[in-house]
């Protein structure tokens, strides 16, 4: 089902009706928005809650933050495999969303290091399980020529939640300074509503059965599909760029050291990036559909290069900080959903969720390696020189990788 009737919609150059974003995509975007409000409201107060309210050390928080950042990458391929193997991505995604929602109940009762670490690990495992099946549902519900726009709409709604969660937590703690459990209760409410909408409203689309009904040959799941040249080329390109992607926190710390404006509004820098992501998500998704998803994915790192330049400038102030946040948002809008669209078109339907998960896992591991290496580089040579070195490496990689992804662009055009 599509939001507007194709025969009455605007037409493309060849006279065919312009594709609209599926209502399934919009519903999945609402589910992601509610879930992100839930998860990000908790994530934004975890440092204060763990070190302040619970009195744990910063070492304990660092370990828990590592779990938060890295655990989901471990199970992404498992979630994709389960989705492809059962040909039922909806209920695999439902399990992941429900597991994350259940952790909000756990936060109301645990108070020690082991309990908090276990709850956070379960929440991130739920995220890892649900991501690829959800993106497979988006692909199966979309017109192929409109895939970038569909992912852009989903990521736009998702980003509303990512920006709204910290703001919600900020407001609760502003009026109730010790209201951490109130944040957890409100977070649980949003998570439960998202799970209910997914279970009751989103149809149980079966991609393999759908492709067979369309006359395509029905193939069994095969692991060796992950070694196909198109997907392998995409994962290599994405992995190289991921290693050269510094975590947002490092960029914010550089801005904070140089700019009183960034230091004063540090808690809201993440919100600023998400607002820019929200603004650019759909336009850059459309651009990817028209100009080429592989090109937009690689060239989106030019915006990241601009953010590095803002961080490396020997000046501070509000203008530089805002420009850096806008560029970071544009970078994520040009790469996050576009990567999933590229992986889905490089993988046959019977392996689609696993292919998406494989590409996302490569990026997650690459960024983990990149951020760790940048932290060491910062310690060794200083923050400005570290940023300049990474920026120079990224500037050299972008044109080379544009050449590498040309076969992907040609395949998609064909």
Task: List the topology elements.
Blueprint: H1 23-53, H2 58-86, H3 89-107, H4 113-140, H5 147-175, H6 180-201, H7 207-213, H8 229-243, H9 248-258, H10 260-264, H11 269-291, H12 293-312, H13 318-345, H14 352-381, H15 383-404, H16 406-413
Helix pairs in contact: 1-5, 1-6, 2-3, 2-4, 2-14, 3-4, 3-6, 4-14, 5-6, 5-11, 5-13, 8-14, 8-15, 9-12, 11-12, 11-13, 12-13, 12-15, 13-14, 14-15
Describe what you observe in this structure.
With 414 residues, this protein is mainly alpha-helical. The chain has two domains: 19-207, Up-down Bundle (Growth Hormone, Chain: A); 224-414, MFS general substrate transporter like domains (Growth Hormone, Chain: A, Up-down Bundle). The protein is built from 16 helices and no strands. The protein has helices spanning 23-53, 58-86, 89-107, 113-140, 147-175, 180-201, 207-213, 229-243, 248-258, 260-264, 269-291, 293-312, 318-345, 352-381, 383-404, 406-413. Helix 5 (147-175) runs antiparallel to helix 6 (180-201) and helix 12 (293-312) runs antiparallel to helix 13 (318-345).
